[in-house]
Design goal:
Helices cover 56% and strands 20% of the residues. By secondary structure, it is α+β, with helices and mostly antiparallel strands. The chain has a single domain, classed as Arc Repressor Mutant, subunit A, CATH 1.10.10.10. The chain starts with 5 loop residues before the first helix and ends with a strand.
């Protein structure tokens, strides 16, 4: 079995989060964790990847954040 590079892992997770936001719309961190089945730190890593590429927006929502794709 081939060992996955860090960049590949982050990219795969970013793809899961991106597809979830694309199909389901704006979501909170907790919703993204539940929908993608990723761990909290994996979702944050994916969000960081997407933010670096300018593909998401983040808004404060009560005591958490909501994330959506940029237009």
């Amino acid at each position: 079995m081939r060992k996955m590079r860090v960049e590949e892992l982050f990219g795969v997770n970013a793809g899961k989060v991106w597809r979830t936001l694309k199909t389901k719309g704006e979501k909170t961190l907790i919703e993204l964790i539940e929908l993608t089945k990723l761990k909290r730190d994996e979702v944050w890593g994916a969000l960081g990847w997407l933010a670096r590429e300018g593909k998401i927006q983040m808004e404060r929502f009560r005591k958490t954040f909501k994330f959506k794709l940029t237009e």
